[in-house]
Amino acid sequence: MDNNKPTIAALVVAAGSGTRFGDAQMPKQYAPLLGRPVLRWSVDALRAQGDVGVIGIVIQPEHRATCEAALAGIENANILIIDGGATRQQSVRLGLDALAAVAARPAHVLIHDAARPCVSAALLHAVCDALRAGHTAAIPALPVTDTVKKRDEDGAVTTQSRDGLFTVQTPQGFAFDAIHTLHRQFESESLTDDAALLERTGQNPHFVTGQRDNIKITWPDDIALAESILSSTRADIRTGKGYDVHRLVPPQHDLHKLMIGGIIIPHDKALEGHSDADVGLHAITDALLGTICDGDIGMHFSPKDARWKGADSGMFLQHAAALLAAQGGVITHIDLTVICEMPKIGPHRDAMRARIAELLHLPLRRVSVKATTTEGLGFTGRGEGIAAEAVVTVRLPFETPADMSAHSTEINTATRKAI
Asked: Going from the N-terminus, what domains does the chain have, and what CATH number goes with each?
């Protein structure tokens, strides 16, 4: 971040219950979206914006563990998780209070709804540039193009003029002290957006051109639309393949269980390995690493390292997924095949799919688990071990000529060093 620029903080509003979304157990901001929770897409977009420093995330207190899980893998001390209030306006005010207390008080703040995961870098830049140009408030707006009709209590319908009408989006940008003061002044009210507070005092927010596909997740069907929008910007489709095998042995201690696909499967033997020896998750992990050309599981989690003794392989899988996400990649499909004579995998197939989907924040429809035998042939046929093979499909942002040139320079430099 350029130290000569005014500091810009961001406040992500994620305290809603999402009642219209229709899932009481999973508020929309935590719903899975192409391998990441909806909230994570919004946070990652803000983190990638070089102008933004500290990021505050306002949540319901009971969702703290879920929020922390959504942020797993982010090594950034500039993220604050803040308990929100009963209304959106109360939550924003509490978030601004928390940001006001940080050591480097921000000059500006972007207030963004967590449920807008498709926000683009260009829109973020436009709002930030307007703030630096001296505007007290800058908000994305789009002119209303559809015919607008109004129906009164008696059912009478009239057509309204759409001249001068706009729909507005987030992030909305403000001079920090100005919006903080207004939220304190009108803290007892409940307005639908933060710019409305300026309007109450006769001030006009500056409009920047909004983004048509910066949709707000409101209904369950919006997830599929967001998937389509986010996938369209990732045209580099790659396939990765992973294979793993572990020996079957008598359990070495009470906690030594047979783990496949992230779940414990009852059996008289367990898999031998430095970690929990989950062949299924290991195969998927290697397949994911293959899509980004980043070695294999042993390079990242050496079997010689005592830290990984008995480790949960779910951690390895999420690490690989985080590396993919850091490159802007998304997982579109996972196909796992477990190869063994015993135990029978069929009764556990749905539980394995559910656990893999949970670990990777994927909808269940994107995870396939199959099983096969070798008809009594080989080490799996003799019951000496279990193997697993995984194929994954991912989408990454298509490389620009500048990206390819940079990669070429890196390769040439490495080659010269090797010579």
From this structure: 8-149+158-220 (3.90.550.10), 236-396 (3.30.1330.50)
